[in-house]
Design goal:
- The protein has 547 residues and is α+β, with helices and mostly antiparallel strands.
- The protein folds into 3 domains: 62 residues, no CATH class; 122 residues; 254 residues, 6 Propeller (Neuraminidase), CATH 2.120.10.30.
- The chain has 4 helices and 31 strands.
- α3 packs across α4.
Length: 547
């Protein structure tokens, strides 16, 4: 505790200053403790035996009469003992407070150690995932290389066989003509009789080939290698987990309550919740949408969104990063409004839409180049598209009738537009829009008017239906997008109930995937495990990682 030099009169302060610098401070500021019997600086013949309580300085009896007249005093030893007890109590309190902060510092060191260990483990996991992916990619690339080399060798072998076949066909003719000419040249020098006899034989041989067409050049088919533009695969994500702030400890933690270096704050073992990422919004700018009606995902993890109102396809990664876009043209620079999109087994896109009430199915490559198209006869209604990759069939929904009485069917086409069959005439579908095909070739159609999902086999035979109007589990209200996941589960966008539902392959209700979307419309499953859903009301796209 410091001397309070602000108290008392100015004269007392001035007289006491020198003594304050030389004598012992009762608070422990100076190097020696005050001792009774030491000489007074102002009165050398007097001993310092008292403490002026008002001025808080040690004094002698002469000082009492001069500068400290009337001030309360006490014995120096008694004051020292009293002050020592108070100071010791403050020291103890300070030590306790200091220990709590030291404990906090120790906790920070432990947390720092834990973070370093976690970072090392996390980095090791990233490196391990990278190495595994590199090994997998190298294996796949090696297999692809071997396959391509095998195909190249086969193409080369086929061309050589064509050449050899033509050589074998022509060689007898060459030999016959050559022999006839050689004999004629030999006999030319052997006399007139020989010349006359050889002329007759040579005339026959040359006449034989005079009217015969000369061999045409061999038409070979050399193979061409075209490298793919597959994007770099994504290893994963580093996700920062939100944890509540830890309070400053008031005392050292016990061995049972302290941070062991293996726990993460207040985390508990809980069931993982569905994690989703949403991007987009209404507009015509990059990454914005005007009615995202259709969606599909490539094996490489690129999301293709049919941005209907903006007459374009936008492409994103499974992390929601914009990649590119291209207009949905079908002839020259004419654009069409798109209703749905699907991907075939070569990785090309099939899009259905219309221009001035003329409906088309158009095939694009992944960068928007038109590869083919064919017209759709019926007009006036939205259409969905799917691809049966096993048979390379393009499957498109169709609606006939008027606003009050509608009749829905499914048409199966070849890529050149030739109709293979029509499916679903007998089941009473009213407004089938979205459609998908499972791994066995079964066709699944969602009907947004009858509130059912209809299932047909690959030959178009009706198997079963499920759903029904309502908001209960297993019921539907305006069914829109439909897709199949790896396990064969059926995922349906239940637009009227603002939710996305999951059913097993028999149509049995399993669970709600999400119940907080305004207008879930198109759905697509990625082989990487994500579910992609478009929202027609908010004009957004959501990616669900754990559904």
């Amino acid at each position: 505790m410091d001397f309070d030099l602000g108290r008392g009169c100015y004269i007392c302060m001035k007289k006491s200053w020198r003594l304050h610098r030389q004598q012992t401070s009762l608070s422990g500021e100076t190097r020696e403790q005050p001792q009774s019997g030491s000489g007074c600086s102002f009165h050398p013949s007097e001993e310092v035996k008292l403490l002026c309580k008002q001025c808080n300085v040690p004094i002698c009896t002469e000082c009492c009469e001069e500068g400290h007249d009337g001030h309360p005093t006490t014995g120096l030893r008694k004051a020292s003992l009293e002050r020592r007890s108070a100071v010791q109590a403050l020291i103890n309190e300070g030590r306790d407070i200091l220990e709590s902060y030291c404990s906090f510092i120790r906790g920070l060191r432990e947390k720092e150690k834990t973070l370093n260990e976690q970072k090392q483990q996390r980095d090791n996991s990233i490196i391990q995932a990278y190495n595994q992916m590199v090994q997998t990619m190298v294996k796949k690339l090696t297999e692809g290389k071997d396959q391509l080399l095998s195909e190249s060798q086969q193409s080369h072998r086929d061309n050589l066989e064509r050449i050899q076949t033509e050589r074998d066909r022509v060689l007898p003719d060459v030999n016959e003509l050559s022999a006839a000419c050689d004999r004629a040249e030999q006999e030319l020098h052997q006399g007139w009789v020989k010349i006359l006899s050889q002329q007759t034989g040579l005339t026959e041989v040359v006449g034989k080939y005079r009217g015969k067409a000369a061999p045409t050049p061999v038409q070979t088919q050399p193979a061409v290698f075209q490298p793919t533009d597959t994007p770099v695969p994504v290893l994963g994500h580093v996700i920062v987990q939100s944890l509540p702030p830890a309070p400053i400890p008031a005392a050292p933690a016990s061995s049972n309550d302290g941070d062991t270096g293996h726990n993460h704050g207040n985390q508990r073992q809980v069931k993982p919740q569905s994690q989703s990422l949403t991007f987009g919004g209404v507009g015509s700018g990059t990454g914005q949408f005007g009615c995202p009606y259709g969606v599909t995902v490539s094996d490489e993890g690129e999301i293709f969104v049919a941005d209907s109102g903006n007459q374009r396809i936008q492409v994103f990664t499974l992390q929601g990063t914009y990649v590119r876009q291209f207009p949905t043209v079908f002839s020259a620079e004419e654009k069409m409004t798109t209703y749905d999109i699907a991907m075939d087994r070569e990785g090309n896109l099939w899009v259905v839409g219309d221009k001035d009430n003329a409906y088309f199915a158009v095939q694009y490559n992944k960068h928007g180049r038109v590869l083919g198209k064919f017209p759709l006869q019926e007009k006036g209604w939205y259409r969905g598209v799917a691809v049966d990759t096993r048979r390379n069939h393009i499957i498109i929904t169709q609606i006939t009738g008027n606003m009050y009485i509608k009749h829905g069917t499914v048409q199966v086409f070849r890529p050149d537009g030739k109709l293979v069959r029509t499916v679903g005439q007998q089941q009473g579908m009213e407004y089938p829009w979205y459609i998908t095909v499972d791994s066995e070739g079964n066709i699944l159609v969602s009907d947004c008017d009858s509130q059912h999902v209809y299932v047909y086999n690959e030959d178009g035979q009706f198997l079963f239906q499920f759903g029904g109007e309502g908001s209960g589990e297993g019921q539907l209200q305006y069914t829109y997008g439909i897709c199949i996941d790896r396990a064969g589960n059926i995922i349906v966008a239940d637009k009227g109930n603002s939710r996305v539902e999951m059913f097993d392959k028999t149509g049995k209700f399993l669970k709600h995937i999400t119940t907080d979307m305004e207008e879930p419309r198109a759905v697509a499953w990625a082989i990487q495990g994500q579910l992609v859903v478009t929202d027609g009301e908010n004009h957004t796209v959501s990616i669900f990682h754990n559904y």
